[in-house]
Amino acid sequence: MDYESARNALTTKLRTAGRRNRGLARVQKDAEIVYSRLAHHQCFTSALSMIEYELIHFSALKQLVAAYSVQRARDLSKFSISLLLSRVLVPSKIHVVPLTRTLTMRGSNDSRMLELRDSIHLHTAKQSKCEIIISTDDHMRRLDRRIQANGSPIRIVDTNIAKNLL
Questions:
Q1: What is the predicted pLDDT for the residue at 139?
Q2: Which of 46-50, 51-55, 74-78, 149-153 ranks highest by mean pLDDT?
Q3: Which has the minimum average pLDDT: 39-48, 86-95, 120-129, 153-162?
Q4: Could you give the CA distance from residue 113 to residue 130 in angstroms, rounded to a whole number?
Q5: Which among 64, 101, 61 is positioned nearest to 79, based on CA atoms?
Q6: At residue 34, does pLDDT exceed 80?
Q7: What is the crossing angle of helices 47-64 and 116-127, to 10°?
Q8: What is the reported pLDDT for 9?
Q9: Going by DSSP bridges, is the β-strand pair 155-157/43-46 parallel, antiparallel, or unpaired?
Q10: Are strands 152-153 and 148-149 parallel, antiparallel or unpaired?
Q11: What is the DSSP string of 37-103?
Q12: Triad 94, 81, 100: Cα angle to 5°
């Protein structure tokens, strides 16, 4: 999201302030550095991330195109998602892990008291044997090195740390 927020008019309001003692410009620069390094690694994202991204776009588009129909906003949102896929995910070779019934059930039965979507993200990472989860969420980052995948702890970090790990 940080990477896209500087490039997409629909997501510019998604990040309006910096975080963790970094200004907005530094946060976006860190995201650019991380993104540029992803192509050298095997990368995954949950299909849930695409749904969350689409919901953000649809909400923004609904406001922008109030004069149009809801269907027109949906069509524009789908187009925006296809741009994301072609401009961001394909060049960096990020694989989208589908939401499966098993994955969703594991997420919903997780005992860590996370929101369902965060639990699904964690289980996606475990299933994909990820070493690093890049997250801006404090409650996710508190689980840094506390979740195992493939016998090793998963790092859950923001872009300022991820850029040094990649």
A1: 84
A2: 149-153
A3: 86-95
A4: 21
A5: 61
A6: yes
A7: 140
A8: 61
A9: unpaired
A10: antiparallel
A11: HHTTS-EEEEHHHHHHHHHHHHHHHHHHTTTS-HHHHHHHHHHHHHHHIIIIIHHHTEEEEPP-HHH
A12: 60
Amino acid at 81: I
Cα angle, residue 25 at apex, residues 162 and 4 outer, rounded to 5°: 70
- Cα end-to-end span (Å), the chain: 18
- Block residue for tokens 């269907």: 71
Residue 132: its pLDDT value, please?
A: 93
pLDDT (mean) for 94-115: 72
Angle at 68 between CA 65 and CA 70, to 5 degrees: 90
* CATH code of the domain occupying 2-165: 3.40.50
| Residue 73 identity | A
Residue whose C-alpha is closest to residue 121's, from 22, 32, 53: 53
